[in-house]
Amino acid sequence: MADLARTPRQIGTIIQRTRKKRGWTQSDLAARAGLRQATISTIETAETPAKLDTILAVLAALDLEFQIAPRSLGDNADIEDLF
Amino acid sequence: MADLARTPRQIGTIIQRTRKKRGWTQSDLAARAGLRQATISTIETAETPAKLDTILAVLAALDLEFQIAPRSLGDNADIEDLF
DNA sequence: TCGCGATATACACCACAGCGTATATTTACA
DNA sequence: TGTAAATATACGCTGTGGTGTATATCGCGA
């Protein structure tokens, strides 16, 4: 089930949760994503909003991906199109 | 149905498609997102990877949102967890 | 085809994310 | 409790994305 991600904070939380689920340290994830441990730290705590490609790299390293969906309809939004 | 968004280019395409569906110009979208028309242009053409909060602002203006889901399982990924 | 709205580009400037390096500080476990 | 691993911070530097202003180019309807 896809997690909602409207803010950098929510994104950071999801990344951290998934990383721990994989049993990886921040350094592990950093190495796989081609980043520094410190960068993972700032992303997870959402200290500063990251760059899009940085987040995409982290998600890829975690075997995750973004999806884009209509907001107002909730998760089970399967409505064909928003007019 | 949620669109997959693994690259800045895919994200730009989805944003453009949704904007046109709304019947908005780049200037319209820019105004609603607190950005410039030129910025919308570079995002849609994926000329340069944007910042995360910029993309989030554009998505919000379009009443869209990110979701985060496992990559390898396709869209109907409802599997409990990928630990 | 003409003209105007829509989109793409240009240039100087500023803000800031991520880097390298390094060190606090916290957490977990023997 | 002590200590090593894991995480959070620090500092100067660099690359670059977004801004303001402005213009060039494209596309489409009359």
TrEMBL record, chains A, B:
The protein's name in its UniProt record: Helix-turn-helix domain-containing protein
Question: What's one Pfam family the UniProt record gives for this protein?
Answer: HTH_3
Recorded superkingdom: Bacteria
Alphabetically, the GO molecular function entries are: DNA binding
Q: Where is the HTH cro/C1-type domain?
A: 15-73
Check the record and name the InterPro entries matching this protein.
Answer: Cro/C1-type_HTH, Lambda_DNA-bd_dom_sf
Entry-linked SMART domains: HTH_XRE
Recorded hits in PROSITE patterns, A to Z, give: HTH_CROC1
